[in-house]
Amino acid sequence: MTNTRVIVVGAGIAGPVLAIFLKTRGYDPIIYERLPSPGEGGLSFILQPNGLRVLSLIPGLLEQIPGHSPDRMIHCSSLEGKEDILVDLDISPDTMRERFGFPLIGVRRAEFQRLLINTAEKHGIEIKWGHQATEFEQSENAVQVTFANGIKDIASFVVGCDGLHSNTRIALFGKEKANFTGLAQCGGLSPTPPALRGKFAMINNYGNGRHMISYPVAEDQWAWAITTRETEVKEDWKTQHVEQQNEIRRGPLSDWAFGAGDLVKTGQNIVKYGLYDRPELKSWFKGRIVLLGDAAHPTSPHLGQGANQAFEDIYHIMRLLKKYNPSASQPSTELLSQVFIDYQDLRLPRTSELVRGARQQGEARVVEGIDACRVRDEKIRIVFHDDAAKMAQSNLLSGPFKDSEL
Description:
406 residues; alpha/beta; FAD/NAD(P)-binding domain; six-stranded mixed β-sheet; 11 helices; 27% strand
C-alpha cells in the first residue's frame, strides 16, 4: 500500500516543520513553494518555549538552531531627554528552562529557514521551488493542484502553509481587503554596538509615538524593529534602496538611547513595511484543504508569537490525525472533516485572541503625547507584577502540551 500523499503549500517556516512531522508519522508529503529558492526575506524572530516544545519532538533539531538566547528583558523609556528603566527581568536560559522547560532564542529567519529545509530534505522530503499554486480542484478522494507554470499534482489532502499572502486562502475564501492599521515597522540587523557589548538582553525602548525591540541573534549581531505611526506604507518586506536606508540611519531614530540609536546607524539590509489587518475567518478548511499558520491567522508581530503559534497548529493537527487516522491510511473526506473541525474549533478562538492582543499591544506601545506616554510607561511597570498577566504568560509559554500525544 502506498503512503498517503499530502501536498504542503509553502516552504517558509511552518511548511517544512509540518512535512517532517507528516513524514515521520507515515505520510508522504511534498512541499511546493512559489519562490525560486530559499528567500532572504524577513529579518528575525524569537523562538519561545511553546514553539520550541513542539520543535523538540523532532530529534536533534533544537541542538542545531542557529541563534542566541537573551539573559535579561529590559523595558526602558526615553521621554523629554530623560532615560528610565521601567522593567528589568531575568529571562536567562536557566531561568526559562526552570519555569517552562525551554529558553528564548533569537534567530535570523533566513538561517532558521535553511536549517528547516535541510532537515526536511534529510528526511527524504522533496521541495519543488518556483511552483505557485493557483487552482485547487477537489474530488471525492483527492485534490488536484495546478501551478502557475502549468504543472499539476494530486494528493489526498492539501495544507496551505503559504503565509501572509496565501494563495491557498484566496482559492478557498476569495481575495480579502487588507486594511492598513496606521502602523509601520522598519528594521534591520546590526553589529553589536559598544553600548551593548556583553549585554545579551531583549530590550524594549519606548518613545513618543514609537517603540523599538532589539535582541541578539548571534554573539556579534543584533536584530531590531521599530514601530511608528505613519501614512500608508506598502505591505512588503523588500530591502530599502540605499538612499532610503541612509535616511533611516541618519534620521531621528539614530539619536535614541540605550544603544538603540547605534543599532539604527549601523543597520544592514534595512526593510520597511506597513502592518495590515485581515478579516478573521470563520473556518479554516473546505473539503480536503486546510490552512495553517499565518495563512489561517495572520498577525501583527507585537507578541512575537507568529511562528510559535504555527508550530502549535502543527502539533494539534498531527495529534488529531493520529487520533482519527492512526494508520496514516488514505482518509475519507468525512474523516478529514472531523480532524479539521476539531483542529479549528480548538485553535481558531485561541489564535483570534492572540491576534487581537498583538494588535492592542502595538497600539499601546506607540501612543503619542508626553502625558499619554507617561501613562503607558507606568502601565508597563505595573503589568509585570500583575498576577493575571503572569498567569496569562505562563499559560501561553507552557503550551501546547505537557505530555506529547504524538
